[in-house]
Amino acid sequence: MKFIVKFFPEITIKSRPVRKAFVKQLRHNIRLVLREHDDNVTVAGNWDFIEILSEQDDQRDAFIESLRHIAGIAHFQYVREFPFTDLDGIVEEAIKSYGDELKDAVFAVRVKRVGNHDFSSVDAERHIGGTLKARCGASAVRLKDPDVLVPIDIRDNRVWMIEQRIEGLGGYPLGSQDAVLSLISGGFDSTVSSYLTMSRGLKTHFCFFNLGGDAHEIGVKQVSHFLWDKYGSKLGVKFITIPFEEVVGEILNNVDNAEMGVILKRMMLRAASRVMEGVSAKALVTGESVAQVSSQTLVNLKVIDNVTDELVLRPLVTMNKQEIIDKAKDIGTAPFAASMPEFCGVISVKPTTRAKMHRVEREEAKFNFDVLDSAVNNARVMSIQDVMADVDQQYQGDVPVVRMPVGDEVIIDIRHPDEAERNPIKASGRQMLNVPFFTLGNKWPTLDQDTTYLLYCGKGVMSRIHASHLMSKGYENVGVYLP
Questions:
Q1: What is the average pLDDT score of the chain?
Q2: Distance CA 221, CA 465 (A)
Q3: d(C-alpha 199, C-alpha 233), whole Å
Q4: DSSP string over 76-126
Q5: Which residues contact 421 (CB under 8 A, 6 or more apart)?
Q6: Separation of alpha carbons 482 and 306, rounded Å
Q7: Which of 379, 390, 387, 388 is closest to 241 using CA atoms?
Q8: 5 Cβ contact partners less than 8 Å away, ≥ 6 residues apart
Q9: Radius of gyration (Cα) for the chain, nearest Å?
Q10: Disulfide-capable partner of 352 in 169, 210, 258, 421 (CB 3.0 to 4.6 Å)?
Q11: Which residue of the set 136, 207, 344, 457 is catalytic?
Q12: Which residues contact 279 (CB under 8 A, 6 or more apart)?
């Protein structure tokens, strides 16, 4: 099995040393990701492309799904390689790959040639195209907008029959740019802004301000892990939790209502500025968009930024809400965000849209900064790889694990809909429901409580977390299905 990776165009216009560094990082990232499917995968570097070789032909779909989400790739091709003998030999191989598609079709052949041959690329296209038309029953040859395109690369004494082309994520390889610390609440905005920095090559760590207890923290850990697992190229990043309940309480008790939202954001920037050094971050990232809410007017944003000397990046600054939601749907974080509680937006009843610095400073003078110091000092820093195991420990309980159901238990697939569609459960004759984990809490009370339900997530970690959580709420009719 062979893939050819083509770089994001902005990589190719860099200076030679920068381009080499970017390609080296991209090779490293591809190797990290694909080793999950094949420990012996070969990722060979090249000035113009990267070659991926694997003997695990059954992993083709898994390779494609993984490569689609690696930043730095413009597109990649699945190719079948064979030795070059002559043009008629290429025709025979083209029939193997495209023969059925060409019948009654309008098609074109595209040949790229590297090396010394006694024919030009145009000569090869004419010969291969004419022979294919005659032998495969094609309707016609049309060079512009053909129904079927037969792309072929002839490279010295070998030929690549390109059987599939897949668009990539684009952007720069993750880790080729400096690290940043993204303030993530789990909603639409912060998940999309985190994705955008990741896709631009910025190694993105996550910082969560816990305002709402375990349930909110678990949700944010889940969506952060999802982002990292899908787009993070397996690079090691950190997840930081800063307990902010007492900070919020201090604001609610001592700060004038109008300034509460702006001051909360200033406290967050203060705290984030103090923990970012621990992950070598060079900037903070927020999901703010101009005037989307009261604290995000230009006047207020200036007052908020005034509290720190660190660079604050706002990838969504000119995007409207629907664009952000559409992007969240595209990258897969929308289902998480739709069920995530939002606490920041309800802190002020009548928030100011034009904060005055002297008023903000007056209100902050009433704030006990020992509370903020305590929050920062009690921040928890963990590897993103470990957050799901940490979530598992937040709800300890003796959860029944069933490998082969024998009664009338109903299996509930709680995986993300994308995963459930790609890898459906194989349990014939067993009643099954699809209830994604981010809707399970709301859906559970509506289920028949006289029935026993077994949660399924694949590896058993996510299902155990949610089964434990339900048991802590008093439900006893739940277990884990782990075939």
A1: 88
A2: 12
A3: 10
A4: EEEEEEEE---HHHHHHHHHHHHHHHHTT-EEEEEEEEES--SS-HHHHHH
A5: none
A6: 52
A7: 379
A8: 26, 30, 49, 50, 51, 52, 67, 73, 76, 168
A9: 27
A10: 258
A11: 457
A12: 179, 181, 205, 237, 238, 240, 381
**What single-letter amino acid sits at 97?**
S
Q: Which residue in 33, 35, 66, 31 sits closest to 51, CA to CA? A: 31
pLDDT tens, residue by residue, 51-86: 999 999 999 999 999 999 999 999 999 999 999 999
- pLDDT value of residue 344: 42
Q: Which of 343, 354, 344, 342 is nearest to 259 (CA)?
A: 354
| Amino acid making up residue 482 | L
- Beta-sheet strand order (sheet of 380-383): 312-313, 281-285, 177-183, 202-210, 238-243, 380-383
Question: What is the C-alpha to C-alpha distance for residues 242 and 379, in angstroms, rounded to an integer?
Answer: 4
Alpha carbons 111 and 105: distance in angstroms, whole number: 19
Comparing C-alpha atoms, which of 217, 215, 243, 200 is closest to residue 387? 217
Q: SS3 string of 364-396?
A: HCCCCHHHHHHHHHCCEEEEHHHHHHHHHHHCC
CA–CA separation, 234 vs 150, rounded Å? 35
CA distances (Å), 183 to each of 11, 236, 330, 382, in order?
Answer: 28, 18, 21, 15
Q: 416: how many CB neighbours lie within 10 A of its CB?
A: 20
Query: How many CA atoms lie within 13 Å of 365's alpha carbon, on the beta-carbon side?
Result: 6
Residues sharing a CB contact under 8 Å with residue 211, sequence separation 6 or more, in sequence order: 244, 245, 248, 343, 344
Strand order in the sheet with 453-456: 401-402, 478-481, 453-456, 410-413, 432-434
How do residues 178-221 score in pLDDT, each as one tens digit?
Answer: 999 999 988 899 999 999 999 999 999 999 998 755 767 888 89
d(CA 63, CA 51): 13
Q: How far apart are CA 373 and CA 351, in angstroms?
A: 26
Catalytic residue at 136? no
pTM of the model as a whole: 0.78
pLDDT, tens only, 3-36: 999 999 999 999 999 999 999 999 999 999 999 9
Instruction: Encode pLDDT of 221-267 as tens digits.
Output: 989 999 999 999 999 999 999 998 888 878 877 888 788 888 999 99
Secondary structure class of 44 (helix, strand, coil): strand
